[in-house]
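Inverse folding, one chain.
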């Protein structure tokens, strides 16, 4: 029997999303205040109830209630009564198994990956680099790979950038020109990124995706809530994390075709951030991953205010649609309404374009794929509410959830093992020591020479000046060498993590 997830009802007729078609992706759209966050929570908990792990981003802090039982909201009770929702409809006032994650590490388990795992393309997107600067980043990754230097965190990246700049002449014939101006620009972008807290995202222990793809003792899928209230103020970091998560799942998971239910479902809120200012090569890769990842058993649901936020090449791959109300005050808004209406399979009994602007809060136009993968006609439905609490939770409740999490204590403490930074720092220290030894030996020889000269003839003022100048030049060259290596690597002697 095919598992169906109730989205809502039209009169007494249920409108459901088939679990075996959930990996054909979907879209939840609508203007602010129309109910799409509640729809997201409803779908997430229903996927969890049928054993599907879920990932979602909590942009406003009002999805954390999915970890607590509902039953205290009068409007939810009214909707439950109006739709005559019963346990067989998948409705139950209950909490859901939840793991909280936070890139900044404040309100959830830390989320980390390494610079190497992120890769040069996404790193360049994160830093908003131009083509020349991205080329330098590619060289850095290549040099790290060829030398076996681990590229784990931002201090490793900074050290390798300095190394490449200092050895630009020897690298030029193999990789091309590396200008100090380009390296300087990248380092400045890194500094700005660190000021947004991004250094916490890079390092070890790196997130193991299987830890997110868990079920509890009742067979319910864990709902992974990314705390993103602060993260959304660093949109480049937020969007890069979502793209990294998508690409990692694509690379790690084997093909499964069309399973009876997805292995995991991802809800990407504020989806437009993934596509804004993205170069064509990145957009092409996103489109490819979205198209192919369904065969890995992964369903992606983009959540956004406007369907136009999603590129047409991606929008065409979203088979399941939930469209809340849109406003049509401007020509651009009117175009969005037309586009949204045209993406549905038309219902002869419904004026789709007119209805989109007339929907009430908690109402939506819904079209889902049938058992043969064919889009159903669009229908106006009252969306079923979730059985978990709507809104935020207390700090005490959050800490209790985290304390009982499957990954409690696994990612809390960062590990800093020997990597590119430590290797290059050690090289610099050895170079400095060798330079100091050379200067000492030179000074000893000079002293011995002066002793022999004084026994034969007094040194003239011109001779003394010439030797002093030579020693000064040698010392200054040595200092510049050390400053060029250590100064770039240590950033003034502070390591910082």
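Residues assigned per position:
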């Amino acid at each position: 029997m095919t598992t169906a997830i109730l989205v809502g009802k039209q009169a007494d007729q249920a409108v459901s999303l088939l679990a075996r078609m959930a990996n054909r992706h979907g879209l939840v759209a609508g203007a602010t205040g129309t109910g799409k966050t509640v729809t997201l929570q409803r779908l997430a908990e229903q996927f969890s109830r049928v054993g599907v792990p879920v990932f979602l981003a909590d942009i406003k802090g009002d999805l954390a209630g999915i970890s607590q039982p509902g039953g205290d909201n009068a409007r939810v009770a009214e909707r439950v009564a109006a739709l005559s929702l019963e346990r067989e409809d998948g409705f139950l006032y209950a909490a859901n198994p939840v793991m909280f994650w936070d890139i900044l590490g404040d309100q959830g388990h830390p989320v980390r990956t390494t610079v190497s795992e992120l890769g040069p393309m996404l790193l360049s997107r994160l830093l908003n680099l131009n083509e020349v600067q991205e080329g330098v980043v590619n060289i850095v990754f290549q040099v790290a790979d060829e030398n076996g230097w681990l590229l784990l965190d931002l201090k490793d990246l900074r050290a390798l950038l300095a190394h490449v700049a200092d050895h630009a002449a020897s690298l030029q014939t193999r990789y091309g020109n590396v200008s100090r101006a380009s390296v300087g620009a990248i380092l400045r972008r890194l500094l700005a990124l660190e000021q947004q807290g991004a250094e916490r995202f890079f390092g070890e222990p790196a997130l193991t995706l299987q830890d997110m793809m868990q079920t509890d003792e009742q067979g319910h899928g864990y709902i992974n809530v990314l705390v993103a209230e602060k993260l959304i103020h660093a949109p480049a970091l937020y969007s890069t994390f979502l793209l990294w998560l998508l690409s990692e799942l694509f690379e790690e998971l084997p093909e499964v075709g069309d399973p009876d239910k997805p292995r995991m479902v991802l809800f990407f809120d504020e989806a437009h951030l993934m596509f804004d200012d993205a170069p064509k090569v990145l957009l092409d890769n996103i489109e490819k991953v979205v198209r192919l990842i369904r065969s890995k058993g992964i369903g992606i649901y983009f959540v956004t205010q406007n369907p136009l936020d999603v590129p047409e090449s991606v929008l065409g791959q979203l088979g399941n649609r939930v469209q809340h109300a849109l406003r049509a005050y401007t020509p651009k808004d009117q175009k969005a309404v037309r586009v949204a209406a045209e993406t549905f399979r038309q219902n002869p009994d419904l004026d789709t374009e007119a209805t989109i602007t007339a929907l009430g809060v908690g109402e939506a136009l819904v079209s889902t794929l049938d058992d043969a993968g064919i889009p159903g006609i669009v229908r106006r439905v009252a969306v079923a509410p979730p059985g978990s609490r709507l809104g935020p939770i207390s700090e005490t409740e959050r800490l209790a959830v985290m304390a009982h999490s499957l990954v409690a204590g696994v990612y809390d403490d960062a590990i800093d093992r020997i990597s590119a930074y430590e290797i290059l720092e050690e090289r610099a220290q050895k170079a400095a020591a060798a330079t100091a030894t050379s200067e000492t030996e030179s000074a000893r020889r000079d002293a011995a020479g002066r002793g022999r000269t004084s026994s034969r003839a007094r040194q003239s003022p011109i001779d003394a000046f010439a030797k002093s100048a030579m020693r000064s030049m040698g010392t200054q060259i040595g200092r510049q060498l050390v400053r060029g290596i250590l100064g770039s690597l240590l950033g003034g002697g502070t390591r910082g993590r």
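The mean pLDDT is 87. DSSP finds 16 helices and twelve strands in the chain.
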